[in-house]
Design goal:
The complex is a heterodimer of chains A (507) and B (238).
Chain A lengths: L1 H12 L1 H39 L2 E4 L7 E2 L1 H10 L3 E15 L5 E9 L1 H8 L30 H8 L1 E3 L6 E3 L2 E2 L7 E3 L5 E3 L8 E9 L5 E10 L9 H6 E5 H8 L4 E5 L6 E4 L5 E4 L1 E6 L2 E2 L1 E6 L5 H18 L19 E3 L6 H23 L1 H16 L1 H9 L4 H32 L1 H12 L6 H4 L10 H27 L3 H6 L2
Parallel strand pairs in A: 4-12
Antiparallel strand pairs in A: 1-18, 1-19, 2-17, 3-4, 3-10, 3-18, 5-6, 7-12, 8-9, 10-11, 13-16, 14-15
Chain B lengths: L6 E12 L2 E13 L4 E6 L5 H8 L12 E4 L2 E2 L5 H11 E4 L11 H35 L15 H13 L5 E5 L7 H18 L2 E6 L2 H4 L4 E6 L2 E2 L5
Parallel strand pairs in B: 3-8, 3-9, 6-7, 7-8
Antiparallel strand pairs in B: 1-2, 1-4, 4-5, 9-10
Helix pairs in contact in B: 2-3, 3-4, 4-5
The chains are: A alpha+beta (507), B alpha/beta (238).
């Protein structure tokens, strides 16, 4: 009883305990901010990685000759109850020439817009879509989307645009919002456009045609209107990826369906034209089926990606058995490690290594900051040691009144807990304020102080993660309270073991 | 006063160790106090009065010796466990110190109530909190402090502080009052009025009291005076 009364009175009667609470608050805030940002970074990476490529992918890169009969494979995959949707794509390197003459290397991804949306939610990533209210930070209403109709959404979703001059419907491309380097991200996450508003312009895409041996055969260039731009939040994709209609990319790569000719002496024949000219005619020996490099899949509701992966492997094995021509349907290489050509989204080569690295980095940073936060324990210890010295006479009085040693120890432990609770509570509040406004703070630091901590090219995302995980917050809060109690433990023990007569005589 | 003494000390020695030197303070003290009696232990500074009081109150233990006993109400407190001593101090003894020893963060009323809070524990106190507050307020009223209940010690005069300390010592209605120079830090007039109040309430409650003082006038208020010099009583103590 007396402990709660004295704890309340001690807590607010001196500056020293408030300083201790402040130290705890800063430590808790620091760890929560770090965990929120790094954990959020990892979660964003996992979430966006999954959003961009679906749950499971089958992959045969351009140099391997790709995968034929993919429409049949898609049908067979979608017939499996573990797989909700499947969609074919082609990924290859390309060069994009912007309005104004600049150009840069990019990764073009040929997609079927509706099928790709069904697997990855592509439509939701189209950036130029009308909004009703300004985003946080857009105090002047500068966001172009505020006065926009949905024409760019319609164009982006279909990846087609009507030529204003000829009235012809043309295939269009959707580059990432950072592919064009002059789209400037403002505080709050909206974009201002300088020089060219890409969705009203055209770009030239040049694709290298690679032979099956990996050699460059030729470059194929075509001009496309820009239907919209996409924003995934993953800087790597937003700055380097361009979506285009699958059929157009197949056509550019000569991967669309075609006739197979044989120019050999045994199968060809000379023919005399009307002009009397003698020409060698290659003989048609069959079809060359269209090809893709990837099949992306979305797991059925309630099915996890590993079950989906196993189902995809089984379907692909059966599919490959039915198509024994290895030039068209490569046999599955699912036996071991990196050679796998069917993988879950998080095992995608490159992404898997990066995710593992980020996981390790998150753990490392968290451990380091937790160790740094342990200084708060020593601070509490020092402050409590001083408080116990200062309260020596009080301890003597309480013992004279019959207080037990454990009662006196509990008084100071409780005091430490109260400081921990107060400090940890303040720290959580502070961390919440920092984390939820971290992008505004960062943008302000950039504009006012010229400091850029979060580099989108380094951290993959244009925005710093700004959500506090309640479970993480709870763990750090509990840690703050426990560490505070630990810091108070030795001083509390000292108080308990104090000789009451000496304590009463203390000056 | 033919009854058995309620408090009895026999062959009590106490030695303090200062660095490497043993400093004997009490050399075989014997004292018997009857129930309801007020005994003044009179002596010069450094004679061992306060040490004796601490031993009688269970704040300290005498030097270990088979002959040394301090018996209160028939129980030898020198052989009591730590918990028993805590309970003895909390429930049977009330201390009044020369320097008041109030808790600076608490109000007058809280400083008074802290004694039952400590002695009774959370649940014991909660059960009787209303009655205890009433008793504490009554005692403070008796001490002339009803208008000071919410004041902090720092806002009180020395005399007022000592009245609060007396109220705190009495609020648990202890059997034994131990007062260590209760007027030693006060002017004569204030000291006299404090002593009046203390004696009045003590008599009303029929409490046994051991009063340590070096002041003749204070000692004369007791039923009996014993002289302590260099750790031994100069006159028969019982």
């Amino acid at each position: 009883m007396y402990q709660s009364l004295l704890t309340r009175r001690y807590l607010f009667s001196k500056v020293m305990p408030l300083l201790a609470a402040l130290a705890v608050a800063l430590s808790v805030a620091m760890v929560v901010v770090v965990w929120s940002v790094m954990g959020g970074f990892l979660n964003m990476l996992l979430g966006q990685g999954r959003g961009l490529i679906g749950d499971v992918a089958i992959n045969y890169p351009v140099g391997s000759g790709g995968l034929a009969h993919y429409e049949e494979l898609v049908d067979r995959l979608e017939a499996d109850p573990a797989i909700d949707k499947a969609t074919p794509t082609i990924e290859t390197l390309a060069l994009i020439a912007m309005p104004g003459g600049s150009s840069k290397p990019v990764q073009v991804i040929g997609i079927d817009p509706d099928g790709f949306h069904a697997v990855t939610g592509f439509h939701d990533r189209l950036y130029w879509a009308p909004i009703d209210t300004p985003v946080k930070g857009d105090t002047d209403g500068d966001d172009l989307r505020l006065d926009m109709d949905d024409r760019f959404v319609v164009a982006g979703e279909s990846m087609r645009e009507t030529d204003p001059d000829t009235g012809l419907d043309r295939p269009a491309v959707v580059p990432g919002i950072h592919v064009y380097g002059k789209n400037r991200r403002m505080a709050g996450g909206y974009y201002l456009v300088y020089d060219w508003f890409l969705p009203r312009e055209e770009v030239t895409i040049s694709v290298p045609i690679i032979t099956r041996g990996g050699a460059l055969a030729k470059m194929e260039s075509r001009r496309f209107p820009v239907a919209n731009e996409f924003k995934s939040g993953l800087f790597e994709a937003d700055a380097n990826w361009v979506y285009m209609p699958l059929g157009e990319l197949q056509s550019m790569l000569l991967w669309d369906r075609g006739r197979r000719l044989d120019s050999g002496e045994e199968t060809g024949a000379f023919m005399i034209t009307e002009d009397g000219e003698e020409i060698w005619i290659e003989r048609e020996v069959g079809d060359s089926p269209a090809r893709v490099t990837n099949i992306l899949m979305k797991a059925a509701p309630g099915v996890n990606e590993h079950e989906c992966e196993r189902a995809a492997e089984a379907v692909y094995r059966a599919f490959a058995q039915d198509h024994p021509n290895a030039d068209e349907v490569p046999p599955p290489k699912t036996a071991s490690g990196d050679l796998r050509d069917i993988w879950t989204w998080d095992k995608k080569p490159g992404l898997a290594v990066f995710i593992a690295a980020v996981r390790k980095e998150t753990t490392l940073v968290l451990v380091l900051f937790s160790f740094i936060s342990l200084t708060a324990v020593f601070l509490i210890f020092s402050i409590f040691w001083a408080i116990v010295s200062e309260k020596t006479k009080d301890i003597g009085i309480l013992r004279a009144l019959g207080a037990t040693r454990s009662g006196v120890a509990w008084l100071f432990l409780r005091y430490g807990l109260a400081l921990g609770l107060t400090g940890s509570g303040l720290g959580l509040g502070l961390a919440y304020l920092i984390v939820t406004n971290i992008n505004l703070i960062h943008d302000w630091m950039g504009s006012a102080l010229g400091v850029e901590i979060w580099n989108a090219e380094t951290y993959y995302f244009t925005e710093i993660p700004n959500a506090v995980d309640p479970m993480h917050a709870g763990i750090v809060f509990t840690g703050g309270v426990v560490f505070s109690a630990l810091g108070a433990f030795a001083p509390a023990l000292r108080a308990a073991l104090m000789d009451p007569v000496r304590a009463l005589r203390f000056e | 006063m033919n009854m058995a003494p309620i408090l009895e000390a026999k062959s009590v020695h106490k030695t303090f160790r200062l660095g490497r030197v043993d400093v004997p303070v009490l050399h075989g003290v014997d004292l018997a106090v009857e129930k309801g009696e007020c005994v003044a232990v009179f002596g010069a500074s450094g004679s061992g009065k306060s040490t004796l009081l601490h031993l009688l109150g269970g704040l300290d233990r005498p030097d270990k010796s088979p002959e040394a006993t301090i018996t209160f109400d028939g129980k030898d407190i020198t052989r009591a466990g730590v918990r028993e001593l805590d309970q003895y101090r909390g429930r049977r003894v009330g201390f009044v110190f020369q320097f008041y020893h109030l808790l600076p963060e608490l109000t007058v009323l809280e400083n008074t109530l802290i004694a039952p809070m400590v002695a009774l524990g959370r649940f014991g106190y909660a059960k009787q909190s209303g009655a205890l507050r009433e008793r504490a307020s009554g005692l403070l009223d008796t001490m002339g402090l009803s208008h000071r209940l919410k004041h902090r010690p720092v806002e009180l005069s020395g005399g007022e502080r000592q009245r609060v300390a007396i109220a705190r010592a009495l609020v648990n209605e202890p059997t034994l009052l131990l007062a260590d120079e209760p007027t030693g830090n006060l002017d004569q007039a204030t000291g006299a009025s404090i002593l009046d109040a203390l004696m009045r309430v003590r008599t009303e409650l029929d409490q046994t009291m051991v009063l340590v003082t070096h002041d003749n006038a204070t000692a004369e208020r007791a039923d009996r005076v014993v002289h302590l010099a260099d750790g031994v009583f100069e006159t028969p103590a019982a």
